Amino acid sequence: MSDRIPTDLVERIDALLPQTQCTRCGYPTCRAYAHAIDRGEADIDQCPPGGGEGVAALAQLLGRESKPLNPFYGDEAPPLVAFIDEDVCIGCTKCIQACPVDAIVGAAKRMHTIIAAECTGCELCLPPCPVDCIALLPIAPTPLARAQVLARAANARARFDARNARIASAAVATAEAAMLSPASASTEQSIAASTTPTSFAPTGSAPTGTADRPITRSAVLEAIARGKARRQGNFKDSPIR
Known about the structure:
This protein is 39% helix and 6% strand. The protein is built from seven helices and four strands, in the order αααβαβββααα. The radius of gyration is 20 Å and the shape is globular. A hairpin with a 7-residue loop joins strand 2 and strand 3 (113-114).
């Protein structure tokens, strides 16, 4: 659905969206939501990160009457940023794979950390974390003004597009390598090589130090135990709760 050739209207709708790629509207990307609005399949009140002013902006663009946000999709709230409890992180890289804007730095079996200035607060890194070491915390007391939402959206869109281009380029390179590889190389090995995370530092100013720390087997087992305890409401020692 989202690969439909964009119209000028789709571009203008997408330009008004916050580009968090959070999927809370019911669509996998902000662009897909813009397509759905253009087709009349989605309403303009489904984007909590865009807030009431975002709904009003869409209404003005489309010549409609504005309306409140639909609470089914969530409420307008202050901006959030993810934080990783690095003492609990086991370096599984699942959050890195889930982040739509490459705002997480780390590598397999290495501590991960968030580039706070690049995080959109989409929450997509939370479900895949097996040890529950990520928390979303507000960075402002109130929702952002419309100008701030659009400024953050421009940066988030650029990072999202860059990530997609990198993934597409890697897929092409993997396909070409598979075509040139010896016949004895199995398909499973080629796929595994293409999907195994490597040391990765996304575009932007990345924190240093924590991502280079190795993780021992005992630390992994302890982290898993702490994560289970936190989910049961018994973990008291971490600063992130």
